[in-house]
Write a structure and sequence with these properties.
The complex is a heterodimer of chains A (about 600) and B (about 300). Chain A has 22 helices and 23 strands. In chain A, strands 1, 2, 3, 4, 5, 21, 22 and 23 form an 8-stranded mixed β-sheet that branches. Chain A has a 6-stranded mixed β-sheet with strand order 7-8-9-10-12-11. In chain A, strand 22 and strand 23 form a beta hairpin. The longest helix of chain A has 15 residues. The longest helix of chain B has 14 residues. With about 300 residues, chain B is of the alpha/beta class. In chain B, strands 3-4-5-2-6-1-7-8-9 form a 9-stranded mixed β-sheet, with helices on both faces. In chain B, strands 10-14-11-12-13 form a 5-stranded antiparallel β-sheet, covered by helices on one side. Helix content of chain B is about 25%, strand content about 30%. Chain B folds into 2 domains: about 190 residues, P-loop containing nucleotide triphosphate hydrolases (Rossmann fold), CATH 3.40.50.300; about 80 residues, CobW-like, C-terminal domain (Hypothetical Protein Yjia, Chain: A,domain 2, 2-Layer Sandwich), CATH 3.30.1220.10. The chains are: A alpha/beta (about 600), B alpha/beta (about 300). Chains A and B meet through helix 8, helix 13 and helix 14 of A and helix 2, helix 3 and helix 5 of B.
């Protein structure tokens, strides 16, 4: 039997991957000192700082020893120091805080290498923008760094006119003065529009004679028909679709900088939480070339499975939603730092875009001005039921994107119909799980489902949600306190690049639920610092079945570590967002170090 | 170069969209049709017809092609617009829970002239689907957004169930003509081919309508000609068109308007969507209004 017949290329490569064998975890309560990791040399000992383990049994220790990519020992200064040899590097933390590095519980890694060459024109705090002048400054600094050739595109992301102090939109003329030779596209924060400069309009042959398509917007210079800069929706979609795409080679060359988005934030496990077939092939190529130094957890899109099955299981014959019996072998194990953790099933859109799916109508009109709008699902329930049952029967974990309570209901129905229960270890994860009704939390408990919340919504869109839904419903978005009370394990994410890769912002939002306007979006649902941190470390690790390897400091676990300049567990909550990453380690190797 | 015309086919799961699309790809209309599909795997193409295939496009020897929308509809449309000279018509098959009217609107930025939003409905399942707690809303929206409704699978229901399905349609889409079909079996040349009616101004469609049908419930077609010797004032013509488009599933022909009798206008109608566009000048002795229209006999219609 050839490898090809034997199954898929991912599982075949898995066998070739070094260090792929699962490491047996040391049990809780076992001695954590010498002998636990027989054979591995003590390479580094960290001491003289705050060492936060994220365990309840031993929340802080004085020193930690690592070697061979693992945590070898931790405990009192005297006990750990006794393990030092001549070859051991003693690292003086100098009062800083060492803790397990963060896990990105849900985001879109493939946006990172692309965004490396894009300029951040988001408003404060997600970006540096306060005015039109600051946009020009940001692009100028970016162009100085990347030196685009004349005619080469400059792309920016996160343009939001409401963050500008000028009281008007950015226009093409603002950009033309500084950038006459390069087409510029600044993507609107909604990702449904952009501002172009004159070279950009010329590239797409748009001028005064260009009609505004139905459902689109082309802002015109007052008193003329000349496009002014901003185009939206149906005027934007064809333009964006025709934008030159970076080549795979270019993206590979930007993978290091893309990983630095994460490493510089103290994150060493990244999620590609909605992977297209082409992107998966790209990531496999990156892994084969050894270009990944952080762990990447990929969740192929359910819609892409027919293409993936055809490519990796060429002899398999089955329906569109069916998988070969051996498919699960492709999941759950890293090969050169790439792992498939499960299948992503998107059930609805986004609440701020009014494309999520709810059981009750919004207080405001729908995305196209509809009255009594409650959204629509992305897939019929028949298909969702079938997909969930099929993946469950094949032993593949389901990660379902559900923002509105109706799509959450659909998933609950599908899980129940598939015969899954809370006594079974299936860890079906509900990504976002935002607009919940209290009884849905009980259903999660009953059925063994786990939410990956998105509390940053309380900051970025909390005020909008209150306007669209009223306080009762909006105050219960991403209800971490209620989930904790019910005994659920949960994670909390950034949905990068929807919001920046900033774990301390995530933590701050979980603890304060403060909106942009300063309103507390659901005071009852605020949580304590430890709960907030666990949702980005040990409980996030649990959702991707890596709790034996990551998420706490315990003997035998991977030495995935971050050093921060303050302890987030004891820092005043207002100071959280100011906490800086000093250094990040992936399995003992430094992958980011802040400039001194 | 004229832009390809656009047809959007919507309808809930199981209504027969793929059956229709497979027939279009098999060359049922004589046009070079490019179909954008959601589910590549469901397309059933005769292997002998396939000229080339890559990950997102299958090209057929009859000039048709089938494209995947897995990277988004806009990307698929952009790819097709780049080879517009090889295509007469773009057909978008929407997903079962899409709003086809919105899909048509989303395609508007690509400046493709829209022929019609055709929505298919399953005669057996429609009433249940329209009241389903999850998808009832979108099923009803689909009907409301239709220019033309194909009520399919009528061979699977008795008279009472058929009446219930008709009622559901009337409730949500009172102005849309309905064609009742079995196995989506209607002469597609009527709905799709932009030149299908050009030389049929005598109103004789017997050959086109004579597609074999073994089903006793198969709808029968009725065609007629609308003729006016005198130029028609625009307002009067619009009233006439609104009336015609609530009855005929398809109509086409030339119109002489009182406001510019020397200009020849082309009237195009699929379902309730009609357009009137300038179409050069009259050949000697041909000036005058002459339209041909086709309706389904006994279909429920607007009062």
């Amino acid at each position: 039997m050839t490898d090809r017949e034997n199954g898929n290329a991912i599982s075949r490569r898995r066998v070739l991957a070094s260090g792929g064998a699962l490491f047996a975890a040391s049990g809780f309560g076992l001695p954590r000192l010498a002998g636990a990791q027989e054979g591995a040399a003590v390479e580094k000992i960290f001491h003289n700082g705050t060492i936060v383990t994220i365990t309840d049994a031993q929340p802080e220790v004085e020193a930690i020893a690592i070697g061979g990519g693992r945590i070898l020992a931790l405990g009192s200064e005297a006990d750990v120091m006794a393990l030092a040899t001549d070859a051991t590097e003693i690292v003086d933390l100098g009062g800083s805080t060492l803790m397990p590095s963060f896990i990105d519980p849900h985001g879109h890694f493939m946006n990172a290498p692309q965004m490396v060459t894009w300029v951040n024109v988001q408003g404060v705090p997600a970006g540096p923008i306060t005015s039109i002048a600051s946009i020009i400054e940001a692009i100028t600094a970016h162009a100085a760094k990347f030196t685009p050739a004349p005619g080469e595109w400059i792309i920016g992301y996160g343009y939001d006119p409401t963050t500008l102090s000028d009281g008007r939109q950015l226009t093409r003329y603002d950009l033309d003065a500084a950038f006459p030779d390069n087409p510029i596209m600044l993507l609107h924060v909604s990702n449904h529009g952009c501002v172009l400069n004159s070279a950009g309009f010329a590239y797409f042959k748009m001028d005064a004679t260009t009609e505004t398509p139905e459902g689109g917007l082309i802002l015109r210079v007052e008193g003329t028909n000349e496009p002014e800069g901003l185009i939206m929706e149906q005027a934007f979609a064809p333009v964006f679709a025709a934008l030159p795409k970076p080549s795979e080679e270019q993206l590979l060359s930007q993978l290091d900088a893309g990983q630095q988005f994460y490493a510089s934030a103290g994150v060493t496990t990244c999620q590609e939480g909605g992977t297209h077939a082409a992107d998966l092939n790209f990531l496999i190529r990156a892994a084969e070339q050894g270009l990944l130094y952080l762990d990447i957890v990929a969740l192929p899109f359910v819609m892409e499975l027919p293409a993936l099955v055809a490519e990796y299981f060429p002899t398999f014959v089955g329906g569109p939603m069916e998988l070969p019996d051996t498919a699960s072998q492709s999941f759950g194990t890293y090969m050169n730092r790439l792992k498939l953790a499960g299948v992503k099933i998107p059930l609805d859109g986004s609440p701020q875009g009014k494309t999520a799916f709810w059981t009750r109508p919004m207080l405001t009109p729908g995305p196209a001005g509809e009255e009594n709008w409650s959204g629509i699902p992305l897939f019929p329930p028949e298909l969702v039921n079938k997909a969930v049952a099929e993946f469950h029967s094949k032993g593949i974990q389901v990660f379902a994107h559900a923002n509105g309570d109706a799509s959450i209901d659909m998933l609950i129905d599908a899980v129940r119909a598939a015969g899954m229960t809370g006594t079974e270890d299936h860890r079906t994860t509900v990504i976002h799980s935002q607009f919940m009704r209290p009884e849905q939390i009980a259903a999660y408990v009953e059925l063994g489902m786990s939410p990956s919340f998105f509390t940053l919504h309380t900051f970025y869109w909390g005020d909008v949600h209150v306007e669209n839904w009223g306080e009762e419903f909006a105050f219960f978005i991403s209800p971490m306190a209620a989930a904790k009370e019910a005994g659920l394990r949960m994670s909390n994410h950034t949905d990068f690049s929807v919001t920046p890769m900033a774990p301390m912002h995530v933590m701050h939002s979980a603890m304060t639920r403060l909106s942009r306007s300063g309103k507390v979006i659901g005071p009852d649902q605020r949580v304590d610092a430890m709960t907030a941190l666990k949702a980005m470390t040990i409980d996030a690790a649990w959702q991707i079945r890596e709790e034996d390897l990551k998420g706490t400091l315990e003997v035998g676990k991977l030495a995935d570590l971050v050093i921060l300049d303050a302890n987030p567990l004891t820092a005043p909550v207002d100071a959280l967002q100011g906490i800086k990453v000093i250094e990040t380690f992936k399995e003992g190797t430094s992958v980011y170090k802040a400039a001194a | 170069m004229t832009a390809p015309r656009l047809t959007v086919i919507g309808g809930y799961l199981g209504a027969g969209k793929t059956t229709l699309v497979n027939r279009l790809l098999a060359g049922a209309t004589g046009e070079r049709v490019a179909v954008i599909v959601n589910d590549f795997g469901s397309i059933n193409i005769d292997a002998e017809l396939i000229r080339s295939a890559d990950k997102d496009t299958v090209r057929l020897s009859n000039g048709c092609m089938c494209c995947s929308a897995s990277d988004g509809l806009a990307a698929a449309l952009a790819r097709l617009c780049a080879r517009a000279d090889e295509i007469d018509r773009i057909v978008i098959e929407t997903s079962g829970v899409s709003e086809p009217g919105k899909v048509a609107k989303n395609a508007h930025g690509f400046r493709l002239p829209l022929d019609a939003v055709i929505v298919m409905a399953d005669a057996e399942q429609l009433p249940a689907q329209a009241s389903n707690r999850y998808v009832g809303d979108v099923v009803r929206r689909q009907l409301a957004q239709a220019d033309l409704i194909l009520l399919n699978k009528i061979d699977l229901v008795g008279p009472e169930a058929l009446a219930r399905a008709r009622e559901e349609i009337l409730l949500n889409a009172p102005r849309s003509p309905v064609a009742e079909t079995t196995a989506a079996n209607l002469p597609l040349v009527l709905l799709f081919a932009s030149h299908g009616l050009r030389d049929r101004t005598d109103g004789n469609f017997d050959d086109l309508l004579a597609e074999p049908s073994a089903h006793r419930h198969e709808a029968s077609y009725e065609s007629w000609v609308v003729e006016r010797g005198q130029p028609i004032p625009r307002a009067e013509f619009e009233a006439m068109a609104n009336n015609l488009s609530a009855q005929a599933i398809r109509a086409k022909g030339h119109v002489q308007l009182a406001e510019g009798p020397d200009v020849r206008h082309l009237y195009q109608q699929v379902g309730r969507r009609w357009t009137l566009s300038e179409d050069g000048v009259w050949d000697v002795g041909t000036a005058g209004t002459r339209l041909v229209a086709i309706a389904i006999r006994d279909a429920p219609m607007a009062g």
